[in-house]
Amino acid sequence: MIPYSRQSISREDMDAVISVLESDFLTQGPATTAFEQALCDYSQCPHAIAVNSGTSALHIACIALGLSEGDRLWTSPITFVASANCGRYCGAQVDFVDIDPQTGNMSIDALKTKLKQAQHDNTLPKVVVPVHFAGHPCDMPAIHALSKQYGFHIIEDASHALGAEQDGEKIGHAKYADVTIFSFHPVKMITTAEGGAAMTRQAELAQRMSMLRTHGITKHPDYLEKKDEGGWHYEQHFLGWNYRMSDLHAALGLSQIKQLDSFVQKRRALASRYHTRLKELPVTTPPNNDHASWHLYRIGIQERRSVYDYLQQSGYGVQVHYIPVHLQPYYQKLGFKAGDFPQAETFYAEGLSIPLYQDFQYEEQDAFIQTLSKALQP
Ligand SMILES: *Cc1c(COP(=O)(O)O)cnc(C)c1O
């Protein structure tokens, strides 16, 4: 089976994990610190908090920003459920902003309209979570300007966008967000098996998130209430979780991030080949963006169901990203219904993610395109 995406693990990756197994630290230790530093260097961001999943990063970002019951979090309906669920963990109400069908990202016009209405109704969000769908950056300067005008926080869900660039800078610098999060699930740009990170430029937020990932505990002398208790002393200041990344996972991440630029280059080259070669087929293609990270290559097809079935039967693990979050039974029980976000619903109905990953060979890609063109014949 050729999947829509998969990890690429080298001999060096394996050796890096083995050397941690031979060391003194298995859980959060020196490899985690080194991986965090590598994320900071890559993204040109002063603080990185590595955690055990992208979902955990979203959760501690919400808590650190004070999201709680009675507050509102808005995100895109075209995302993985985690971007919305993090609001529910905090007891906040979740709502969605319809998408721009060109990119699949939250529409800036729809966001403006909804904010204006919410200001009138006194229902403004506390947190907005834009998602860089497939690794195409959202218009972050525009969303940042709106956050100043309306007074909301931004958590940038960059799960797809490690390695993407906007205005010559790598996504992850967090200049237009309070927190930017990454996921290192195997299908994402680099992997730690399971893992994630929260990036921020704000020292106080970083400190709070680093405590939230380990029960709300600190041992740092600057933060202790009792400074002279002894070397064993630690204090829990608020309620946190065990969201730590292990050094095994971090060592894999540290080895993977060294290959990130080459992963991105390979994905961009494959995306550009798709862009030219799919022109003759009755499908819509994504914007040909040289600065995207290309986590996914999503095409639009009228008869999606039969094409999906044909490709699956031919050995291609194509996928659909995403079932709009508001149409999940859990969110429908909270009051959402079909028709609420029509652009997202059409984007879903026609969407298909086709194979794109760093080790996908050009000959394999050409063979896939031939099968796709057969699948599209009436
Ligand atoms: C993968 C993903 C997440 C969650 O990441 P995990 O590491 O699987 O918890 C969140 N948001 C988006 C958009 C994702 O694609």
Low-confidence stretches: none
Overall geometric form: globular
- Separation of the first and last Cα atoms: 25 Å
**Helix fraction by DSSP (H/I, runs of at least 4):** 25-40%
Question: Ions, cofactors, ligands: which are bound?
Answer: pyridoxal-5'-phosphate
**Broad structural category:** alpha/beta
How many strands, what sense, and barrel or not for the largest sheet? 7 strands, mixed
Average of pLDDT: 97
- The main sheet orders its strands as 2-10-9-6-5-3-4
Count of helical regions: 13
Content of β-strand: 5-15%
Q: What is the string of helix and strand elements?
A: EHHEHEHEHEHEEEEEHEEHHEHEHHEH
Q: Radius of gyration, Cα only, in angstroms?
A: 21 Å
The overall strand count is 15
Detailed description of the structure:
This protein is α/β, with parallel strands linked by helices and 378 residues long. The chain contains 13 helices and 15 strands. It has helices at residues 11-21, 30-43, 54-64, 82-89, 108-121, 140-150, 203-212, 247-257, 260-277, 304-313, 329-333, 342-350, 362-375; strands at residues 2-3, 47-51, 72-75, 93-96, 127-129, 153-157, 165-166, 169-170, 179-183, 196-200, 217-218, 235-236, 297-300, 316-317, 351-354. The chain has a 7-stranded mixed sheet, with helices on both faces. The protein has a two-stranded parallel ribbon with strand order 1-14. Helix 1 packs antiparallel against helix 8 (247-257) and helix 3 packs across helix 7 (203-212). The radius of gyration is 21 Å and the shape is globular. The mean pLDDT is 97. Pyridoxal-5'-phosphate binds at residues 53-55, 79-80, 82-83, 131, 157, 159-160, 183, 185, 196. Pyridoxal-5'-phosphate is lined by residues 53-55, 79-80, 82-83, 131, 157, 159-160, 183, 185, 196.
